[in-house]
Amino acid sequence: xxxxxxxxxxxxxxxxxxxxxxxxxxxxxxxxxxxxxxxxxxxxxxxxxxxxxxxxxxxxxxxxxxxxxxxxxxxxxxxxxxxxxxxxxxxxxxxxxxxxxxxxxxxxxxxxxxxxxxxxxxxxxxxxxxxxxxxxxxxxxxxxxxxxxxxxxxxxxxxxxxxxxxxxxxxxxxxxxxxxxxxxxxxxxxxxxxxxxxxxxxxxxxxxxxxxxxxxxxxxxxxxxxxxxxxxxxxxxxxxxxxxxxxxxxxxxxxxxxxxxxxxxxxxxxxxxxxxxxxxxxxxxxxxxxxxxxxxxxxxxxxxxxxxxxxxxxxxxxxxxxxxxxxxxxxxxxxxxxxxxxxxxxxxxxxxxxxxxxxxxxxxxxxxxxxxxxxxxxxxxxxxxxxxxxxxxxxxxxxxxxxxxxxxxxxxxxxxxxxxxxxxxxxxxxxxxxxxxxxxxxxxxxxxxxxxxxxxxxxxxxxxxxxxxxxxxxxxxxxxxxxxxxxxxxxxxxxxxxxxxxxxxxxxxxxxxxxxxxxxxxxxxxxxxxxxxxxxxxxxxxxxxxxxxxxxxxxxxxxxxxxxxxxxxxxxxxxxxxxx
Length: 580
Known about the structure:
The chain is α/β, with parallel strands linked by helices. Helix content is 33%, strand content 22%.
């Protein structure tokens, strides 16, 4: 078996009885017995100063790790929820699909946030369209307090407002009902509070190119109006499809059954967005989701800005919610750190019947390019008002999990709904059950990955991770441990969607929080040294002390730690061991 280039499988020491039983079945199609020895290694020299590749070392070994009474007590950043799940359900019982919750008035108290964390929230999303700066700051600091004082690991995402040229508001903090044949006035006039049957548009030119007879569709179909008269920049309209008007609703114009497209030539990030981003940097957030992305330029510009202004690695996610973003999907995915499929707004731009296949296509592209993807919008919309989801909603959630989306997101269900905790519980139990079904079908064997690495070190890292997951599946190991400073190899392992859970040990808190969005990865914060053997022994001892790993458990270990003391050597390895 070749791992990369001319790196060949040559020798392995196997001693644990449990592992031998699994190895005897088949390893990469070759029967293995306890007397067989294999290993692979290759060493080249890397002269970094001359910017030419001269050294990459790859090593594989299988060994048994013994407990050591000489190890000093250390710390292991194991969040309390993952630790509890592992103790209760074992390695294969760990949920792999990550859960994102939008925080709003219904769940912004310290107690409600903790309930969401206990129920499995991995990332808290703050929609910058709503609430004040002070409100957002208060929520962020409550989440950080939960993490620091109570042992949770919840990342924080802000979602930019974008140039809201098609946002309207009826002025009330709650929803308003539009009855059939009622007449409403859409105006650009600025006023405080609300007026009867009056909707305030956010953009002066919102009615440009709109004619009597055109239709206004609110929030993708929550209500529909027919334009009866144009009064300057304002519109008088009659409700033809009654429904609820939510605060800060989004509208679209339709003519003869087709969406009316207009190019406003506005930047992706508004002045307010940049102000919110500066605020987010100052509060130490982990993710920024960019709304209404049209191309990759805005994403690159923001990432360059963050590289100079933020001391931590803030990840940038692009929201796919328009035809423009679909047309340039691959370049946007490549430029970003992840993708959010905003199905609500996307459903306004394309026919409804295309949403399922487009979702699957976007998810596939993200997998191929190794970027996490969030499926968002209306997953459990009925649970905004009702304590039980529809069966169709549960099927929708299951399909997103079957497609191996990295994360699922609640919007109004958690932000304003009465049953946010129940909705999160539905996501958790449904995803766990569908993950089990996918394991039983062994669907991982159907996945084919695109080669991503350009440089030889990147190619080696990619091939090591691909082979490590294949080994983990063939050997039937209980877990995969990866030691990583920046999360690259953890994400490459996750991309392969292995059956065993991935435990990513890192000494960088930014990396830990970013990995909260990666499928199947449980990030743990701990001190790492240049001595990989010491790292492995220490972390295994710490996990054993918590009672979450048992004797004879088989562990596959992968590392991409670059020794600080010898910066010209890159050390990447695969080891397989059982716990004594």
